[in-house]
Write a structure and sequence with these properties.
Length: 88
């Protein structure tokens, strides 16, 4: 019985797939790191301006996955007066 796993072609395909998966994982990890950094920034400045957030506000910010939406919150931080205004 022929075992294709020892084939050089099979090994090359496997290595290529692993490389693609690693690159995708790295990009996803970087994006999540950027989102987390933006959330920390929002919280740090927000606490200084508005005081500590409620658990609800914290949960809403933690749930945001869109980098664009997080960036919009950063842009609004200096234009609003409360956490609730920020999240409207």
């Amino acid at each position: 019985m022929l075992d294709l796993r020892v084939s050089s072609t099979y090994q090359a395909i496997l290595e290529e797939g692993e490389a693609i998966g690693a690159a995708k994982g790295k990009a996803e990890g970087k994006a999540e790191g950027n989102r987390e950094g933006t959330r920390r920034f929002i919280m740090r400045i927000g606490v200084r301006r508005f005081g500590p957030p409620s658990a609800s506000v914290q949960a809403q910010i933690d749930a945001i996955e869109s980098e664009e939406e997080l960036d919009q919150l950063v842009d609004r931080l200096l234009d609003v007066e409360t956490w609730d205004d920020l999240l409207r």
